Amino acid sequence: MASRHSKLEINAGGLQCAAVSDVGMRRSSNQDSMAIALADSNAQWRSHGHLLVVADGMGAHAAGELASKMATDTIAHSYHKRPEDSRSESLVEVIREANKVINAKGQNSVDFQGMGTTCSSLLLLPEGALTAHVGDSRVYRLRENSFDQLTFDHSLVWEMAAAGHATEDEVPAYVPKNVITRSLGPHPTVSIDLEGPFPLRSGDRFLLCSDGLTGPLKPELIGMVSACLSPVEATQSLVDLANLLGGPDNITVMIVEVVDQSQLGSADVSLPIGPKNGGRARHAKPDGSFFVWLKTMLFSRSCKETVSGDHKISMQGKAPYRHHDATPSAANIETLNDIVRQLEDLESERDWQFDWQPIHADRLLAHQAIANGDYQEAVVAFCSAVCRLMQALRAQSVPSSDSSIGLGRE
């Protein structure tokens, strides 16, 4: 098993960001990509903001991987070049530009025909958070214990549900869940959803992810883990949980927390140290499948009427589209309890040569916390058990075809 797992951590003034991307348990390559572009001064923050993007490629593995990389590359490089437009319009336009670039590549090469990618972007500004979105990757906001989906899935299931005024769970089971209705690349033009701005508060967390996370895990569980753990711990735990429930697709999850809203413009930016870099982040693809582009960049002018300086941003979209309760509770924690119980059942079934005692100890701590009514501490302990197991398996290079990892789904 070659390098399958990459992580990124960035601390900036008033902001903490962590991301993990993993090839999953059933794929040979990672077609997910991401970009993070942070303003590096108060002036740049007020006029430019922070930009984060996740993309999930489609097509033959080389085509999908290239499509997602082209999307994040183009958006990150081109956004600051449009000073004549408002910031919301600029974001939409650079996503349209990415669509044209990917479409042209597909049209000009037989190997890349039909290539495409989803794209979910988050732009944090003094006026609030904006999302621009195509496909079924998602952006969520976690505020206290409310986990709200800010993007509409461009999927057949969601489109049918919206047309019938139903929920996606009420769409007939024969309707395939993996068919998306909109993406970057297949067509010369594309419609892009813009949502926001949503006012920022200290303590807000935003989560961007590919559907490799939301397929195996329910939103309530994703939100609860995101609420109880630090961004670094939560991203790792969520990827490990998705893998334990089968990991059928590439998994990318990014969490950005507004630690202190009043400090968002400070220039205290700490660049990440990657697993192989040992130093400042750079334009790199550390594991040959996971693409991270990090660069501080200049942004331009901006678009309910929210005013900041000379800028106005008009409220767009209809988000949030789903509300989920992420409160740590006996009901919400039952899935974690069941996963860790199944992990311990594997001890006697699989020849995995590592120490199970710390996993048993974590489970004991979790049950003690539940008995004391401390469900947040129970979440922490259960997730610790999950991460211990997956770290040990990665160290032992358990092959991705090992179906023993696929525990019972929720």
Explain how this protein is built.
This protein has helices at residues 42-47, 61-78, 87-108, 156-163, 211-214, 219-228, 231-244, 330-345, 357-371, 375-396; strands at 5-12, 15-22, 32-37, 50-58, 116-117, 119-125, 128-134, 138-143, 146-149, 193-198, 205-209, 251-258, 291-294, 305-308, 311-314, 322-325. The model is unreliable at 271-310 and 400-404 (pLDDT under 50). The chain contains ten helices and 16 strands. It is α+β, with helices and mostly antiparallel strands and 410 residues long. The chain has a seven-stranded antiparallel beta sheet with strand order 1-2-12-11-8-9-16. The radius of gyration is 21 Å and the shape is globular. Helix content is 33%, strand content 22%. It has two domains: 5-210 and 249-325, PPM-type phosphatase domain (Phosphatase 2c, domain 1, 4-Layer Sandwich); 330-405, no CATH class.
Alpha carbon gyration radius: 21 Å
Please give the share of residues in helix. 25-40%
The CATH superfamily of the largest domain turns out to be PPM-type phosphatase domain
**How would you characterize the largest beta sheet?**
7 strands, antiparallel
Q: How many H/I helices?
A: 10
Strand order of the largest sheet: 1-2-12-11-8-9-16
Return the CATH topology of the largest domain: Phosphatase 2c, domain 1
Please report the distance between the alpha carbons of the first and last residues.
Answer: 27 Å
Number of domains: 2
The CATH architecture classification of the largest domain is 4-Layer Sandwich
Shape: globular
- The beta-strand count equals 16
* Structure classification: alpha+beta
Mean pLDDT: 84
Task: State which percent range the strand residues make up.
Answer: 15-25%
CATH top level assignment of the largest domain: Alpha Beta
Assembly annotation: single chain
pLDDT under 50 segments (min length 5)? 271-310, 400-404
Spell out the helices and strands N to C: EEEHEHHEEEEEHEEHHHEEEEEHHH
